[in-house]
Inverse folding.
């Protein structure tokens, strides 16, 4: 009998996505199924999800799920076995997944995602017609109460795991939500869900899950220190023997330049002519000058302080003075969006920006850029640089988290040894970023050297095969915990 795992996530690509969590929640189960693991994925019944899954089967009903009725629905789509919590009073609303159209968090987020975790626990305890899983795998704070509900159930339970995708988002709520969430009074304790006088969803998962993972080895070490621990470093140090860092992968079928319908022509390491066509198409799409000799630096990112995009604005004049071009796709902080709009207006033909998210344009930027820039101040793993490697657009990154784990700096020794795959900035500041761009430009000016760097980047293993094996070993270790 194969191992049964219930994966619990607030977003899953390709059904609904705001960030990398959705990519992981969509790709990891498929990689695990190739190893014989039976994975079901539980997610909320947002309107977009119900619209994308017209053929849903009801498998369970709850008369009162935190203020209204709910149904558990099942479907098979996009290679995934999906379970959808249909609770209209919690999810049937216009706006974002976590906030309304004005950007304010939904005031009932504690109940919205508490319900997701509660249903995960019901499935894990065998209180639905579905087979009981041996492992419940919670992703980020939105699923963080699943290990808590299972811990306090007072019954034989499955093993539990929680994965931190970004420790900065923790799901902190007032203490008054404890009773509406159906948690027992004894749960409000430092050894339970209590966190600085309130209820901490992520903290609860980190304290009560059998295993903790995060999405790169370096980030696993960083978050045990106060500088990156976001107030949870003490707990993470206390549970260090339960904490593992496993690098994310990407779906190498979706991200494959040799068979990508979003590119004007296919290419691979042995024949890169299609990449030059992608560059031309990208320049046309974003209104950049059609100059094959201009170094195009691509950015596909949330526009935020974390991602270091303010540093890019500082060094942008330096890039443009050297004849470089910027191709940017992103959305986020209004001040950063406005600043990049001004930059595009001030430098037509050299700066091209698109705001929001466009999957096709994201592929074109990866395929058509000469380098992809990821100047993050902290980065749990990062998927952008993995796609960049796959598409022969060597990443320019900072030495943090998963960026440090996945990009080999093109210093003299690494280039001589033939192992360099990108550029790693010396520090996280504008001067170091400008120096990194200069080093990239020096390599770009040498066509033979640039072609070698592209090919080495494309040879990097970025699939889910290795990470899935690591998750399987952890699942096997915790299955059947009671």
């Amino acid at each position: 009998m194969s191992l049964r795992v219930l994966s619990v996530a607030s977003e899953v690509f390709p059904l609904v996505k705001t960030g990398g969590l959705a990519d992981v929640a969509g790709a990891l189960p498929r990689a695990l199924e190739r190893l014989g693991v039976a994975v079901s994925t539980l997610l909320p019944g947002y309107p977009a999800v119900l619209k994308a899954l017209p053929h849903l089967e009801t498998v369970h009903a709850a008369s009162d799920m935190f203020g209204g009725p709910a149904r558990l629905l099942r479907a098979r789509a996009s290679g995934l076995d999906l379970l959808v919590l249909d609770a209209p009073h919690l999810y049937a609303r216009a706006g974002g997944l976590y906030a309304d159209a004005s950007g304010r968090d939904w005031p009932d987020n504690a109940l919205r995602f508490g319900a997701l975790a509660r249903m995960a626990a019901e499935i894990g305890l065998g209180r639905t017609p579905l087979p009981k899983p041996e492992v419940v795998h919670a992703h980020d704070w939105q699923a963080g109460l699943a290990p808590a509900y299972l811990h306090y159930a007072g019954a034989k339970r499955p093993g539990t795991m929680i994965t931190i995708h970004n420790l900065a988002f923790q799901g902190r709520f007032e203490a008054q939500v404890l009773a509406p969430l159906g948690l027992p009074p004894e749960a409000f304790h430092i050894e339970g869900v209590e966190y600085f006088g309130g209820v901490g969803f992520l903290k609860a998962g980190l304290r009560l899950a059998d295993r903790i993972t995060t999405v790169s080895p370096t980030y696993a070490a960083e978050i045990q220190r106060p500088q990156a621990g976001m107030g949870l470093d003490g707990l993470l140090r206390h549970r260090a023997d339960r904490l593992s860092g496993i690098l994310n992968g990407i779906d190498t079928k979706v991200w494959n330049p040799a068979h990508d319908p979003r590119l004007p022509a296919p290419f691979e390491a042995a024949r890169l002519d299609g990449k030059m066509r992608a560059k031309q198409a990208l320049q046309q799409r974003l209104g950049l000058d059609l100059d094959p000799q201009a170094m195009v630096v691509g950015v596909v990112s949330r526009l935020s302080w974390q991602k270091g995009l303010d540093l890019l604005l500082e060094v942008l004049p330096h890039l443009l003075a050297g004849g470089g071009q910027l191709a940017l796709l992103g959305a986020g902080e209004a001040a950063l969006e406005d600043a990049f709009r001004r930059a595009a207006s001030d430098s037509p033909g050299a700066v091209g920006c698109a705001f929001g998210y466009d999957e096709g344009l994201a592929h074109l930027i990866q395929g058509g850029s000469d380098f992809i820039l990821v100047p993050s101040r902290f980065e749990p793993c990062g998927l952008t640089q993995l796609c960049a490697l796959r598409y022969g657009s060597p990443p320019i990154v900072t030495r943090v988290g998963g960026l440090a784990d996945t990009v080999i700096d093109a210093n003299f020794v690494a280039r001589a040894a033939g192992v360099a795959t990108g550029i790693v900035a010396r520090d996280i500041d504008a001067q170091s970023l400008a120096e990194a761009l200069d080093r990239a430009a020096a390599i770009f000016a040498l066509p033979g050297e640039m072609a070698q760097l592209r090919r080495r980047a494309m040879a990097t293993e970025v699939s889910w095969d290795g990470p899935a094996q690591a998750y399987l070993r952890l699942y096997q270790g915790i299955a059947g915990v009671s």
The mean pLDDT is 96. The first helix runs from residue 20 to 33. The domain at 257-458 is CATH 3.40.50.2000 (Rossmann fold).
